[in-house]
UniProtKB/TrEMBL annotation:
Keywords: Metal-binding, Zinc. Zn(2+) binds at residues 115, 120, 195, 200. InterPro entries: MOB_kinase_act_fam, MOB_kinase_act_sf. SMART domains: Mob1_phocein (SM01388). It comes from Botryobasidium botryosum (strain FD-172 SS1). Residues 1-31 are annotated as: Disordered. PANTHER family: MPS ONE BINDER KINASE ACTIVATOR-LIKE MOB. This is Maintenance of ploidy protein mob2.
Length: 260
């Protein structure tokens, strides 16, 4: 019962990579929406917001060959998302979320230098898609992407470290709200992926990491689909059709990568 969580717990002790503060130490005070554990969009509605289209003419590189096919794992993720024998499904979901979070955090740590309030004044995820944060007053606010991502990653880390959400003691059961919490985490991590694909894929290519990044995201999508953690409309964005990583999702489905 506690095997996977014991792994997770030992990983939890590893500190997150130091956060960069490209906008200076006073930035959070100026932002007017300090992070509050449990507040914000992670527990809110936070539907993707349509914004004025930017330049839709150019197809994103992540949708082009050969990059769309770059992967460490060939074929589908069918076998690695399958629930192992004798493992509780909540344990399986918990440990996988833990892995996704940590891997995404490592990628973000590398890409963070290029994600500043100047380069990314909004949490963009496509030419017509912009995510907004919901502050303590339930107001939707635009945040620079690095601020939004810091809020998300800090909130997820706190949630993972909270034994009420992610129990670690032998015999401790998962809360009945665990599936909801897991979905909230998933939704926010998806947004971080979506921003990195939209705004920082060139850097991923520059680092020759497209195979790693694609495999991590495809695994994330396949797992989310298998365990009902993903809301398809979150992947597609608004009602105007597939945008950003929504198209990638469709392409990978066509290629059979996401079959589970
Ligand atoms: Zn950015």
């Amino acid at each position: 019962m506690s095997f996977f969580n014991s792994i997770g717990r030992s990983m939890a002790r590893n500190p997150r990579p130091p956060k960069r503060s490209p906008t200076g130490p006073n930035f959070y005070q100026d932002a007017g929406a300090p992070p509050v554990p449990g507040a914000g969009d992670a527990y809110g509605a936070g539907a993707p917001m349509e914004v004025a289209p930017a330049d839709p003419a150019q197809k994103p590189l992540y949708l082009c060959n050969p990059f769309v096919k770059a992967a460490l794992v060939k074929g589908s993720f069918k076998t690695i998302v399958r629930l192992p024998n004798y493992v509780d499904v909540n344990e399986w979901v918990a440990v996988n979320i833990y892995e996704f979070y940590n891997n995404l955090n490592l990628f973000y740590g590398v890409l963070a230098e290029t994600c500043t309030a100047h380069s990314c004044p909004t949490m963009s995820a496509g030419p017509a898609l912009d995510y907004r944060w919901i502050d303590q007053n339930r107001k939707q606010v635009k945040l620079p992407a690095p601020t939004y991502i810091d809020y998300v990653m800090s909130w997820v880390q706190q949630t993972l470290d909270n034994p009420k959400d992610f129990p670690t003691k032998i015999g401790a059961d998962f809360s009945p709200t665990f599936p909801t919490t897991a979905k909230h985490i998933y939704r926010q991590l998806l947004r971080v992926f979506a921003h990195l694909y939209h705004a920082h894929y060139n850097t991923v290519l520059h680092l020759s990491s497209e195979g790693h990044f694609n495999s991590l995201f495809a695994h994330f999508l396949a797992f989310g689909k298998q365990y009902d953690l993903l809301d398809v409309k979150d992947i597609h964005g608004g009602s105007g059709g597939a945008v950003g990583v929504g198209e990638l999702w469709e392409k990978w489905k066509e290629m059979g990568v996401l079959e589970a």
